[in-house]
């Protein structure tokens, strides 16, 4: 299926493709267009719009689009639920929700600055979310300690 959203992705528009590709639609294709063209192009391309008001998948109250996808597709993976809290904190500037939220925002903003091609940015972002998932699933309890002795 094709999924479409506005160009110049940050937090949710990178996190959602990772979630969709890994837990909803492994054949997903992602399209980025100017904000005012999303619904027109969605109809033309038979694509699912996401992460903007009026879209099939969007923010709901204090929850971001990533949360909405998790809810709609009944994703129960504990690592994904942990990532959802981090993404929500980063995407809604609620950095108090998870200690990693501010860092995820910083990484996302840096990606957006460094990569002007949205699909190139998405490819790098997918690797970042793969790493975040591995951390959440396998090593989130691990502590980094350094003792110079």
Main features:
149 residues; mainly alpha; 6 helices; 54% helix; ChrB_C; Chromate resistance protein
Describe the structure.
This protein has helices spanning 11-24, 38-45, 65-72, 78-91, 101-114, 118-139, and strands spanning 2-6, 29-33, 47-49. Helices cover 54% and strands 9% of the residues. It has 149 residues and is mainly alpha-helical. Helix 1 runs antiparallel to helix 4, helix 1 crosses helix 6 (118-139) and helix 4 (78-91) crosses helix 6. The N and C termini lie far apart (55 Å). Strands 2-1-3 form a three-stranded parallel beta sheet, with helices on one face. The protein contains six helices and three strands; from the N terminus they run βαβαβαααα. It comes from Chryseosolibacter histidini. This is Chromate resistance protein.
Mean pLDDT: 95
Estimated structural class: mainly alpha
Rg result? 16 Å
- Percent strand: 5-15%
Number of helices: 6
Query: Which series of helices and strands comes N to C?
Result: EHEHEHHHH
Pfam family, one: ChrB_C
Organism: Chryseosolibacter histidini
Domain ChrB C-terminal: 3-135
Protein name: Chromate resistance protein
Question: Which helices and strands appear, and what pairs or packs with what?
Answer:
Elements: E1 2-6, H1 11-24, E2 29-33, H2 38-45, E3 47-49, H3 65-72, H4 78-91, H5 101-114, H6 118-139
Parallel strand pairs: 1-2, 1-3
Helix pairs in contact: 1-3, 1-4, 1-6, 4-5, 4-6, 5-6
